[in-house]
Amino acid sequence: MKKFFSLFLAGACLAAAGCGSAPDGNTKSGGDTQVLNLYSWADNFSPDVLSDFEKKYNCKINYDVFANNEELLAKIQAGGSEYDVIQPSDYMVATMIKLNLLEKLDKSKIKNTENMLPALQNPPYDPSGDYSVIYTWGVTGIAYNTKYIKDTPRS
C-alpha cells in the first residue's frame, strides 16, 4: 500500500496537526487523547515545549529523531513508521516530492503561513509551496581576521 507523508515543518504545523483538545477545552475526538508522531532532528525541540504542547492540546507526542536526511528518507521509504510531521532539509523535500512520498498540505488549516515572508512561501525545492512550510532559515557567514589573513578569501 502506497504511503503518503505530510510535511509540516513544525511551529505553525504542530498546532495545525492538532491533538485532543483545543485551548477552549473542546475535544476533537470525544475526549480521547490523540497521538502526534513527530520525526525531526535531535534536539530540535525542547522537552519542556513538547510537554507543554501535550498538556495544552490533550495529546501525546511521539518524538523520533534522525541524524541526517538520508536516514529519514530510508526510514520513510521502508514504510516502518507513519509520521504526522517530518522535518527534512530543503534538498530532501525536493527528493521526497519526486518520489511521491509527501501529501499536499491544506494551508487553510495552517493559518500562520500567510504571515511568512513572501520569498519563503514558494522555495525553489517546492516552487508551488504545496508540500512544505519553512520552519527556520538562516545565512552562514565567514569572518576572518585581516591581521592573520592578508589576502581576501575568494572561495
Q: Could you report the average pLDDT, rounded to the nearest whole number?
A: 82
Instruction: Please provide the count of β strands.
Output: 5
- In N-to-C order, the SSE pattern is EHEHEHEHEH
Regions with pLDDT < 50 over 5+ consecutive residues? 1-16, 20-27
Largest sheet strand order: 3-2-4
Shape: globular
Sheet with most strands: 3 strands, parallel
**Distance from first to last alpha carbon:** 48 Å
Structure annotation, total helices = 5
Helix content: 25-40%
Structural class: alpha/beta
What is the beta-strand fraction?
5-15%
Give me the Rg, rounded.
19 Å
Features of this protein?
155 residues, alpha/beta, three-stranded parallel beta sheet, two-stranded parallel ribbon, 5 helices, disordered N terminus
Give a short summary of the structure.
By secondary structure, the protein is of the alpha/beta class. The protein contains five helices and five strands, in the order βαβαβαβαβα.
Descriptive report:
With 155 residues, the protein is of the alpha/beta class. Helices cover 26% and strands 14% of the residues. The chain is built from five helices and five strands; from the N terminus they run βαβαβαβαβα. A three-stranded parallel beta sheet has the order 3-2-4. A two-stranded parallel ribbon has the order 1-5. The longest helix has 11 residues, at 47-57.
